[in-house]
Amino acid sequence: MDQSVLKVRELTYKLRKLNRSLRSVYLWLLWLYSTILGRTPIMLILFLVAFVWIFSNIYARIEHLNFFNAIYWIIITITTVGYGDIVPHTMIGKLIAMVVAITGFSTLTVALSLAAHNVVSKAILEREGGGKVRGTNILLVGTSPACVDIAERLRKLTGKSSRIVWVTSPETPDKYVLNARSLGVMIIKGDLTHLDTYYRADILTCNKIIICGSSDKENVASALVVKSVEGKRIYPPTIISLSYTSQGEKILSELVNVDVVVPSKLIGGLFMESFSDPVAAMFLSALSEGHPNLLEIKLMEGPLGLVFMRVGNKVVPLGRKDNITAERVSKLASKIRGTKVYVVARVKSVMDIEPLKPFDYLDPNDILVAVEFKSEIT
């Protein structure tokens, strides 16, 4: 076979191999930008700082420059100013210049674009209550005023680390919307039975969805729309819904297959424990079946080793912290409420909820679950 043909084939093979290698590098960079760097401009800026630091060291050694002049040259190159007072003289230096110019400029451009997009999107959402939100962590759905209370507790629990979006109806009173906005909650108004409303809230990126409508009918309708998106996600979000009646709870849990159903009477401190721990929510949900009401009782440690108990709006002393049992709390709560109250469980943390027996000792700062029967004590 002719020698020239062999050389052409060898060159073709090398080009194909190089093409596969470049494609692999391209896909890796694309994954890096889309999964890690492309999420926030801060990550891109950190990447850019590391990039400048590494290539400044390399360029300084190759071109025999001091470190300051190398950083100066890279920054001037990335920003496309190009004064021309420092130029590469070696072949490797010129290759580094090409890599720095392409990679650095593209990274800086993307970072500035993301920063501008975040500022403009937030301004539009604050002004119009519309648009599309990027990176939703928690999605509140419904028209109930309880959404504001839940948003406030979520904000206290997570701080500013999570993005909370409230999808509600245009008929929701402005005072609730303003209260939610003051907590840093994004507002999306629209028809709760249309999927487009949820896409505007970027439902495909949220981790948890809390449905808190003003009725079981609204909760079921919203849950059906939300559940229709599950098949489009690799990792579906946890869906939590409030319920107002035992029938609504049964429909949401058995027919709609909502992950966690929480009775509306648990909107309060216990609801946050339920939200953080689905097992706790299921336990409390089962506990409420067949009982007229659930009551939240908080123990608070005071001075001189005394413990106080808060039931509703009343705070009363219990005694010393080493002598408090569930039965004692039940009797005192029954006396305060004028009803029959039985302490049945305590929630000490998001992963620690347990049933209580009458003679179990309690600790200060416990959150207790009690069953209250409305029949008056005779």
UniProtKB/TrEMBL annotation:
One of its GO terms (biological process) is potassium ion transport. It is found in: Cell membrane. It is a multi-pass membrane protein. SUPFAM superfamilies: NAD(P)-binding Rossmann-fold domains, Voltage-gated potassium channels. The chain crosses the membrane at residues 25-55, 67-83, 95-116. Residues 46-116 form the Potassium channel domain. One of its GO terms (cellular component) is plasma membrane. Pfam families: Ion_trans_2 (PF07885), TrkA_N (PF02254). Keywords: Membrane, Transmembrane, Transmembrane helix. The keyword Repeat does not apply. Its main location: membrane. Residues 139-262 form the RCK N-terminal domain. PANTHER family: POTASSIUM CHANNEL PROTEIN 2-RELATED-RELATED (PTHR43833), POTASSIUM CHANNEL PROTEIN YUGO-RELATED (PTHR43833:SF9). This is Potassium channel protein. It comes from Ignicoccus pacificus DSM 13166.
